[in-house]
Amino acid sequence: MYPEDDLLPLSAVADFVFCPRRAALHRLEQVWQENAATAEGHALHARADSGAVESRGDLRIARALLLRSLRLGLTGKTDIVEFHRLPECAAGVKLPYASGVWRPFPVEYKRGILRHEEAYAVQLCAQAICLEEMLQTTVPEGALFYGLSKRRLDVTFTENLRRATDEAAAGLHELIAFGKTPPPIYEKKCTKCSLFDLCLPKTTSGKRSAVRYLAEALA
Ligand code: SF4
Fold first, then answer.
1. Quick one: which of 127, 119, 111, 113 has its CA closest to 42?
2. Looking at the predicted structure, is the pLDDT value of residue 39 above 90?
3. φ, ψ at 184 (rounded to 5°)
4. Closest Cα to atom 7 of ligand 1
5. Mean pLDDT throughout 197-217?
6. What is residue 122's predicted lDDT score, i.e. its pLDDT?
């Protein structure tokens, strides 16, 4: 169990799975870079961030719920948690101002078109684990909603995904405790990374440091 002071943001887990260097640049060096993609992502999250609660038949929708898991050492805010009504005999959670029992179903907004991204699945699974810990219930599924295609991808929280989430949260904590940013490794995914221009993965990979690259460039 992690103490409250050591909790890290849920979104950092997605960064860590995508690239540990990206997580370190954000969390250790406070390096952020806005591009069209991240701006679009912020706009999507802002729309989900109203805090409003909706009620539609056997569905309740809560927005911007604060979450935390002391076991994973993570905290953050959901875009949406749907609560689906269960049969009376089923095990679920009670909701204020609503009869019956309900099952939480987290939904995370992402930019772009429908696709599977391991980093996003892990982030969503971490939200589910937070809900399970806070509400003492089970959360077997959630969904990723892709803004451009306006379609959602259901995600089942399998044993493998839960293990990957545990490992990612532990790895993120180790990275932050170690306190050093790992060197870049240029891969195809770097072209999608908003930190590309600051990270310089092509020029600082391997033994070439950023300082040496700059010295060579200036010379
Ligand atoms: S550009 Fe590549 S190496 Fe650098 S932070 Fe992004 S994904 Fe990681």
1. 111
2. no
3. -75, 150
4. 190
5. 65
6. 97
Question: Which protein residues are within 6 Å of ligand 1, measured from CB?
Answer: 19, 21-22, 25, 184-185, 189-190, 193, 195-196, 199, 201
Distance CA 117, CA 204 (A): 26
State what percent of residues in the chain have pLDDT above 70.
84
The whole-model pTM stands at 0.86
Residues 151 and 213 occupy one common structural domain: no
Predicted confidence at residue 207, as pLDDT, reads 47
Q: How many domains does the chain have?
A: 2
Do both 134 and 164 map to the same domain? Answer: yes
Give the span between the Cα atoms of 80 and 131, in whole angstroms: 12
Question: What single string gives the DSSP state of each residue in 65-123?
Answer: -EEEETTTTEEEE-SEEEEEEE-TTS--EEETTEEEEEEEEEEEEESSSS---HHHHHH
CA distances from 175 to 20, 26, 63, 171 (A): 8, 12, 31, 6
Token pair recorded at residue 209: 């440091």
pLDDT digits (tens, 9 = 90+) for 129-185: 999 999 999 999 999 999 888 899 999 999 999 999 999 999 999 999 999 999 999
26: domain CATH number? Answer: 3.90.320.10
Distance from C-alpha of 96 to C-alpha of 144, rounded to nearest angstrom: 26
Domain that holds residue 122: 4-182
140: tokens are: 């077997």
The verdict on 109 and 187 lying in the same domain is no
Q: Which atom of ligand 1 lies nearest, measured to the CA of 194?
A: 6
